[in-house]
Write a structure and sequence with these properties.
heterodimer, A: mainly alpha, 13 helices, B: mainly alpha, two-stranded antiparallel ribbon, 1% strand
Amino acid sequence: MSTTTLAPAVSNPPARVADVWYPLRRSAEAVLVPLAALAGAVGLFSVFLLALGQSPLDFLDLVWRGAFGSWFSVQNTVQRASPLLLTALCVAIPGQLGLVIIGGEAAIVLGGLAATVAALPLIHTAPVIVWAAMAIAGSAMGAFWIGLSGWLRAKLNVNEVIASLVLSYIGLALFNHFVEGVLRDPASLNKPSTYGIGDQNMLDTVPWLDVHPGMPAGIAACIVCWVLIYRTGFGFASRVTGGNIRAAQLQGLPVTKLILTACAIGGGCAGLAGAIEVAAEYGRANASLNAGYGYTGILIAFLARFNPLAVMPMAILLGGLGAAGGLLQRRMGLPDATIQVLQGLIFVSILASDTLYGRFRWFQPRGTA
Amino acid sequence: MSGSIATVLLAMLAGSLRVSTPFLFVSLGECLTEKSGRINLGNEGVLVLGAMVAYATSYETGSPWAGVAAAALAGLLLGGLHGEVCSLAKVNDVAMGIAIMLAGTGIAFFFGKPYVQPSATLLPGIPFGFWSASPQVRNALLVCPLFLVGIAAAIGLHWCFNATRAGLRIRIVGDSQDAALALGLPIDRTRFIATACGSALAGIGGAFLSLYYPGSWNEGLSSGQGLMAVALVVFSRWNPINCIYASLLFGAAGALGPSLQTVGITWGYYLFYAAPYVVTLVVLIITARGGRSLRGMPGQLSIGR
């Protein structure tokens, strides 16, 4: 033991041992880092509340009760989470290709408008026909609108972040032009709206569970998108493109087509969310559609690291935060922007946590020399 | 007919002088940040936060200029946060900007709630139209002192980039990280300072919104000027002097809808409201056509790679 030879063993290199636990540890890293970021954001927010003389424990308790405390609040959470599932996909699917699309808000309002317009001539036929027409028109409109950003990116090399945001403002202006102009129901005085699709054509809540009908649609969309991204050739090509666009082009992957398809799928999801909101909640297109679901969807997609399955818990989390807003306002006297402050902190902390990936040796592959 | 066209043009000139100031400040701030090789989409949040802080400070102290200073300080802090977090490895500056935007507007709405009702002391205008008898011309030429400050800042920034050691260092850091490393320049610190100072300028733009035009604080105050500034900087080819012209153009586009309303054209009000966004889009398409190598674009900018 006294000899301290530092010379490496040249004759016998260690055999390459497969690190069987590495995939598991890598998944653990993908779960633990965002959780740590969430915890960090909640910690920062607690300091913020303490500085204002409020109790963070009361806050967490109220959020819990407002979001999941009773069946009523669960329904409320699900109602908010349902469109968020779809608007998050609008960011997550193009995100797989390395695009940051932030125009989901326009896709949801224009999707809702298109769905209403498609439903109006059909209101006296069967509800099934109306719903089918609404779903098709809504998703087609959303796919077109986000596809436009993708087309600008792929064909004209316009930065998609700015393009999608500017298109989102243009889309909202178009929406207002139609809802307050040609399509306006003269009976809607205080809140300009289109003509209604009729009570008989409204979507009912899910049988037995009595929750928002967008929930099954959103979950199905998340699962389908997960299969699409992780189990198909399209998904593989998309992820390669997202990893390194030049390598993808060199391999002869149809990058333009991939970008257009991903944007259309994402936009279709957001447009469908608009159609469902009209069919399930409002019965007509009006400013209620413009409720910020598109913007919260961006946060959820980043929280989920663009993984469609991870979108589901994150949408429930953010939907729950939104559902608790009213209770917080009544019980603690906090302004409704409180949730926005918390969301902003979560967003900053989740993005800052990207720097943690690969910093911890424990998560790295071992045994492979 | 020619009378009403003159009215519309005068109203657009007036609107352009009035509405362009926030565009000018945010685009100058964005220009400074992008010259150092980083993009800051968070300036939208800085704009809203600056507007709230300026209004609240002016209300509490009675001095609008204290409000402007406070807005710049708020911008400096929020921009500093962006700069600091972005200097960590692997952090995406585009996404981070969206997060800062969300956080900034959230904080502004949170603390701004009590200031929606009360009226604060606003900035005075300088009457350059004193020679005219026409009230429209007088109104059009009532210029906010911040507009002049913005023009001075643009000239100062242009001089700084082209004639000073600090400006040269910022450009080196923005154009080639390798060259900056070889010269031993502090890359992260340069970008941090450029981001923080850029956001301070954006904060002053916010102060204009709440303290001059429209001259009140509410949650719908900003209509995306902070983000359109990114397109404006592309249009200006990263040149501060061009930022002045671009801001005036965008201001005029924004004034199109209200100007047409003054002569009785109310059809398509919402469509004309979208005019500045359409201009932004057209500008983006025209400037992007040249491919990746946009003239004047800092080489390290993430949107160009």
